[in-house]
Amino acid sequence: MTDDPHALFAAWLEDARASEPNDPNAMAVATVGADGMPSVRMVLLKGHDARGFVFYTNQQSRKAGELAANPKAALLFHWKSRRRQVRIEGLVSIVAADEADAYFASRSRDSQLGAWASDQSRSLDARATFEARFEAEQARFEGRDVPRPPHWGGYRVMPERIEFWSDRAHRLHERRVFTRTADGWSEGLLYP
Questions:
Q1: Backbone angles phi, psi at 64, to 5 degrees
Q2: Strands 152-166 and 174-181
Q3: Alpha carbon of 77 to those of 35, 65, 160, 181: distances in Å?
Q4: Residues annotated as part of the active site
Q5: How many CB atoms lie within 10 A of CB 28?
Q6: E strands present in the chain
Q7: Most exposed residue of 12, 49, 79, 173, measured as fewest CB within 10 angstroms of its CB?
């Protein structure tokens, strides 16, 4: 057992990588709109350390707009094969441009082109429209590197609270919670 929630998360993620058939780094990201209505979607975790949990997206998307207005989010990892989940709540900041550039450069070329072609979260009249835009971006960047679009970047969720949930027989689950304090983390247990 550890009293460092980031080390515990890293161990659980590594364990999930060995057993989850698809995307062990998949997480639900919940935000809140200006009308107070919550919104949740799946994204992929692309980095984590003591500073927080990082994902990337179009910064003109619905989630980005909600984060601009209310820079708080909740994350949920659910590893069914391991019978575990991790819940994270925290403040959100934008990832530095050089960090976003480095991650963007590591993506597949088609994913890079898709970031240019997509007006993420906006209405689309027909799939053919998006496919034509993608082909236009292929032609535009043919024979050269694809730079990161100015409207695409990363977000870091800096946790204030991290809960580790383990399934137990008869719904007698184990819930371990870490809450950020001025000098580190306090730890406790929750009833199932």
A1: -65, -40
A2: antiparallel
A3: 26, 23, 16, 23
A4: 171
A5: 15
A6: 26-32, 38-44, 47-49, 52-58, 72-79, 84-94, 152-166, 174-181, 184-190
A7: 49
Residue 107 DSSP label: S
Q: Name the strand (E) or helix (H) holding 5.
A: helix 5-19
In the chain, the domains with their CATH numbers are 5-96+150-190 (2.30.110.10)
Please give the average per-residue pLDDT across 187-192, as a whole number. 94
pLDDT tens for residues 24-48? 999 999 999 999 999 999 999 999 9
Q: Which position has the token pair 């995307």?
A: 23
What percent of the chain shows pLDDT beyond 90?
92
Phi-psi region of 92 (alpha: psi -120 to 50; beta: other; left: phi over 0): beta
125 pLDDT more than 60 = yes
Alpha-helical (H) ranges within 29-179 are: 62-69, 97-106, 109-117, 127-140
The amino acid at 98: D
Is the distance from CB of 115 to CB of 58 less than 8 angstroms? yes
Question: 166-180 in b/e burial notation, b at 16+ Cβ within 10 A?
Answer: eeeeeeeeebbbbeb
Given this model, what pLDDT does residue 1 score? 57
Task: Give dist(CA 79, CA 140) in Å, integer.
Answer: 40
